[in-house]
Amino acid sequence: MPVKDIVDNARDHMAKAVDHVQQQLSKVRTGRASASMLDGVRVEYYGEPTPIGQVGSLSVPDARSIVIQPWDRTVLSGIEKAILAANLGITPQNDGQVIRISVPPLTEERRKDIVKQCKKIAEEGKLAVRNVRRDANEELKVAEKKEHYSEDDRKRGEDEVQKATDKYVAEIDKILSVKEVEVMEE
Fold first, then answer.
1. Which are the contacts of 64, defined by CB distance < 8 A and separation ≥ 6?
2. Mean pLDDT value across residues 32-43
3. What confidence tens digit (pLDDT) does each residue in 12-25 have?
4. Element of type H or E holding 117
């Protein structure tokens, strides 16, 4: 495999790790209401666990509330049970037409716990990026022997992989700092 392909493959995997961190952090609850808070909630609908977004429309009328308008009113209690079972620290209120969720403001202690959780997610992402770097460097060493690349080609490839690693780790740090500010503000 050419050095360029190995480096490009490593960049792709690193970008996917950054995207994964972004997705995970978007699910972390801040003091603001967000429909993405309910992304992992599955509602029992005709015997199948169904994503909450597929049984009704979710809206965020203000910074402290979420409204779920089910397409089929018979699923109201199922939505309510699913939200409670998800253990998100929020309590749904069913008025027979829609489900309203009030997002309580976070305590300072809870905010700090959430920031720790975010840092852990970011660290896992950085670890994934570094693992991609390690694998790419191993591939480059194998390619040097098997395909008779020069040592300079291998070193150039390793330098490119290191630059990509630095770039994506910095990106994760930037995403984390934005999330920290978002969690701590109020």
1. 32, 33, 102, 103, 105
2. 81
3. 999 999 999 998 88
4. helix 108-146
